[in-house]
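Good morning C.,

I know you're traveling, so I'll keep this short. The sequence:
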Amino acid sequence: MEHNKNSPTKRVRCVVKLGGAAITCKNKLETIDEENLKEVSTHLRQAFLPDSTSANVLGMDWSKRPGQSEAPSFIDDFGDQSVADSESFIVVHGAGSFGHFQASKSGVHKGGLSRPLVKAGFVATRISVTSLNLEIVRALAREGIPSIGMSPFSCGWSTCQRNMKEADISMVTKAIDTGFVPVLHGDAVLDTLQECTILSGDVIMRYLAAELKPEFVVFLTDVLGVYDRPPVEPGAVLIREIAVREDGSWSVVKPKLEDTIEFTVASHDTTGGMVTKITEAAMIAKLGIDVYITKAGTDHSVKALSGILKGGIPDDWLGTAIRYVS
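The tokens, ready to paste straight into the viewer:
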């Protein structure tokens, strides 16, 4: 992998992953969960602009909304206000009910751009995921977060056998240094071995964490965290803490699971690839960066985004903390 030495002068506080299932309606093609997205955007605003309130938000989406006859007028609200102090965040979001249909129907992830169906699917997938990206950027902008949508394909990112090969993060770092919040997403990209594939948001998370060394990383999902079995099954236990060792192996620290409960990551594969999430999160934790997985739109996510969990995990916090142990 080619590493980019172009680091921002501002320390990145947090890289946040918005799980596709948390911000879209999983079983409705290209449908955003508006209520959840609004809640998540508010929580991100509270973390990004700690001194902000809902009353003093300066909206940055000046486009016409569906059903409106004209664009909203925010310009007069700004006056001569100085730029508020903000934390440095990066947001990466999954696709949820956007992009997956187009990608799976055409086989984009398997490659083969010379086939007309794959080429059409590549275009269709990018139309879908970039349209979701725009809506998330707009939702954050309405909360006064200066968000900039960035597509891996357009930034020249590419893979080799689906693993990150080249990722120029210079525009990401420039955006951070200028006070913007980059908003990236899983994308259809070119692949040196199989012509094209899908670059997942989780892989992007690991790459950004390795390059930019944020203080901590937060995964916001549609469930409270990692369970010992699919959370819909009776008796599923929320795993509170996972320890990652130097060789990348990991084990459950809290709660102490009884011998009768075998933690099988394979069972999570059917519920959104949880094994991938744990593996990617463990690789981030191995860098000495704490990872918190919790449910989007809850008080638990507010605590995770605020950074207070670095001082210690309170007993009433529900989520999964993944940490490095030397």
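Safe travels,
E.
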